[in-house]
Amino acid sequence: xxxxxxxxxxxxxxxxxxxxxxxxxxxxxxxxxxxxxxxxxxxxxxxxxxxxxxxxxxxxxxxxxxxxxxxxxxxxxxxxxxxxxxxxxxxxxxxxxxxxxxxxxxxxxxxxxxxxxxxxxxxxxxxxxxxxxxxxxxxxxxxxxxxxxxxxxxxxxxxxxxxxxxxxxxxxxxxxxxxxxxxxxxxxxxxxxxxxxxxxxxxxxxxxxxxxxxxxxxxxxxxxxxxxxxxxxxxxxxxxxxxxxxxxxxxxxxxxxxxxxxxxxxxxxxxxxxxxxxxxxxxxxxxxxxxxxxxxxxxxxxxxxxxxxxxxxxxxxxxxxxxxxxxxxxxxxxxxxxxxxxxxxxxxxxxxxxxxxxxxxxxxxxxxxxxxxxxxxxxxxxxxxxxxxxxxxxxxxxxxxxxxxxxxxxxxxxxxxxxxxxxxxx
Length: 426
Hints:
This protein is an alpha/beta fold.
């Protein structure tokens, strides 16, 4: 199989490396064991109860790195990325390189021939892959169909082999994904199940936080699995999309299209992203392409593009909900303008806003007064664990100090106005 430098680089991105908590053989993981993950479930349940008591239609944020071992998330991400890359390779061989990912469609006949030529599956075997996937009637397979084939890997009679790009040899796709990983997958989904059921019972929605890009494919996939179950009638589970990633738009549009096909409600929290330094350092260290947009402006462009796409969906189908988690005034204004143009009223509660407690009150309060659902995000925990989180947010919001000065000036102006009017405490 032919190899492209971009694909080889991408593979490096999902390889375990010393220092990310995802290496094998060293047992000093972020969370020592399954028992620790179960303790985190208890903590999240208390958060859900607290959200329920403090606001109507509340949110609780949960971190999947607290519910699963990081090395499992990295291995699962690696499998998902290899499988997707195999699809892209075959699409390129069918002359579709350079198209938008969702527009790539493999002709089933050619696909079966390629699988037979590569010695991956005979025509009879690959025919079996498509049974029950409603693909028998279709002559093409797109990326979403392709991803759904992976779900049924356990039913495939022999190990699923795919070409290794470096060696050209066939290797098992799931070589590092044995019974233990399958068990961990079930446990993680079970933990999310427990949290989702409590959230529904308490009238709270769950936002699954985004993490570093080498965990993210697994986190997104597990979140989508949970959305399939619990977002049937409304968006209870929200996936987080980091718009500083070059592939953010592909991720949003792919998941949205899946929700349309399967008939569940799409829930998205849009953020700019908070691991830029770490991502760039790791890419340089391991020799793969930087996954982050080159400039802040490009990231804003990506954010607005994703925003617009979800807003259009809300207008046409009303089966999507979104949290605009941003401290950027231009992004908030862009959202308000587009909502007005598309006729999406704040009272529908399909779009809400989120800012950190103590940050950007000059954005939060006017939004709330104008009738928009707006939430203050409250991170809490031991100081040594919360400080790195807050420092990342300060990094992410580089213009924050100017905004803090502006906020202080606005407050001082209001105090003076009230003093002169003689109604300081009204």
